[in-house]
Design a protein that fits this description.
Mean pLDDT: 90
Number of strands: 14
CATH topology: Beta-lactamase
Radius of gyration: 20 Å
CATH superfamily: DD-peptidase/beta-lactamase superfamily
Order of helices and strands: HEHEEEEHHHHHHEEEHEHHEEEEEH
Helix content: 25-40%
Distance between the termini: 19 Å
Number of helices: 12
Structural class: alpha+beta
């Protein structure tokens, strides 16, 4: 595989909020499940490379703690932790800990939306304009559900104004409709709907409310009934209240300059994130979700294809683009799908999940610090991706030219 196929980090970057940093810890713990009859041991040389890359990335990140996992079909898993989950007690990071996973929520809401539209019961289609639900949004008669999902609507991102609101009231109970109204009043991007690509959580807020209004069911119930329960993701929850269940990671942030550095953000609510960022999860549930996302759990063949093919304009020459609710990476020469991925950041927390289409492997990460910009976890992702075994990124063949 060409080195460019490890450049997934470029598309990862667009999914990260602009947050701030925290203190680091040097505590180290490594955990790994023993191989079973159905698996072969992970090559010791590969394990050593992964461990070294994790050490390097964690040291650069400044996060208090991190847990990462790599699951390759037929091979022993690699799950490793570094640092602590609680700076006060110095409790080591643990794979069982629940954490805030931010914008990975968009992949969950996007999958629910594609399921609902695939069922054909709600009356919502990808080509519906949003004017029937939100006529107050500028150019609502031109913005389609598809454009909300692939971030091509031209609705501007929340930006600094949202960060200021969070710092002013970390326990805000702002409603989805209040957030949408703020988005509608924000000057839109210069391009026409469908003609560009701007990553904005307002898109997913509108999508979430459309799902609720079309189905008559609240978003938390839709997510729980359609995904969390059937997938057995018992440690994952759609949680605008952001109340974590024991055991959990405390979050640490330098997000708000006027607060102690770092600030413990564990009990900050996530109503500002809602459909765009309010999920809680664990590293093992992210493994489950990575498989479900990669395999298109509950999607019709039509919706399965659309989420990959309907990428927003602006896909790079290296094959990166935003599909329907997920970041997509295809081989620009063969059209073969390489991976689906998404990252997320909330004050004091970061996460990443990535499914490799050719091998069926999943890589995931959870961290409990934002490192000064919201991208602390990204240092770990950048360190580990280049040392993944070549078999992880293998494609299934060259018969998938678009």
């Amino acid at each position: 595989m060409r080195n460019s196929k490890w450049g997934v980090v470029a598309v990862v970057a667009i999914t990260v909020s602009v947050l701030s940093g925290c203190a680091a810890s040097t505590s180290t713990t490594v955990v790994s499940a023993p191989p079973t009859a159905a698996t072969v041991p992970l090559d010791p040389a590969v394990r050593a490379q992964l461990d070294a890359a994790l050490d390097e990335g964690f040291a650069a990140s400044g996060m208090p703690g991190v847990v990462v996992g790599l699951w390759i079909p037929g091979q022993e898993e690699w799950v490793a932790t570094r640092g602590v989950s609680d700076l006060g007690s110095e409790q080591p990071m643990d794979r069982a800990n629940q954490s805030k996973i931010g914008s990975i929520t968009k992949t969950v809401v996007g999958t629910v939306a594609l399921q609902v539209m695939g069922d054909g019961q709600s009356g919502v289609t990808l080509d519906d304009t949003i004017v029937r639900w939100y006529p107050e949004v500028p150019l609502a008669n031109e913005i389609t559900v598809r454009m909300l999902m692939n971030m091509s609507s031209g609705i501007a991102p929340p930006g600094q104004a949202q960060l200021d609101r969070i710092c002013a009231d970390p326990h805000s109970e702002i409603t989805p409709d209040e957030v949408i109204a703020i988005g509608a009043a924000t000057p839109r991007e210069a391009y026409s709907p469908g003609e560009g690509n701007t990553y904005s959580g307002y898109n997913t807020f509108i999508l979430g409310r459309i799902l609720e209004r079309a189905t008559g069911t609240d978003l938390a119930t839709l997510i729980d009934d359609r995904l969390m329960k059937p997938l057995g993701m018992e440690r994952s929850r759609f949680a605008p209240d952001a109340v974590l269940a024991e055991p959990f990671n405390r979050g640490y942030s330098g997000f708000c300059g006027g607060m102690p550095q770092p600030t413990d953000t564990t009990d900050w609510t996530n109503h500002e994130g809602w459909a765009a960022g309010a999920m809680l999860s664990t590293i093992d549930d992210l493994h489950t979700w990575g498989l479900a996302l990669g395999e298109g759990y509950g999607l019709t063949p039509e919706m399965q294809a659309a989420r990959i093919d309907d990428r927003a304009p602006g896909t790079t020459d290296q094959g990166y683009g935003y599909g329907l609710g997920v970041s997509v990476h295809v081989d620009p020469e063969t059209g073969c799908l390489l991976d689906l991925n998404h990252s997320g950041a909330e004050p004091g927390y970061g996460a990443h999940v990535q499914y490799f289409a050719g091998s069926g492997a999943v890589f995931a990460l959870i961290g409990n610090g934002d490192g000064g910009t919201g991208e602390a976890f990204f240092d770990v992702v950048k360190a580990i991706l280049p040392v993944l075994p070549a078999s992880v990124a293998a494609t299934s063949g060259a018969d998938c030219v678009e």
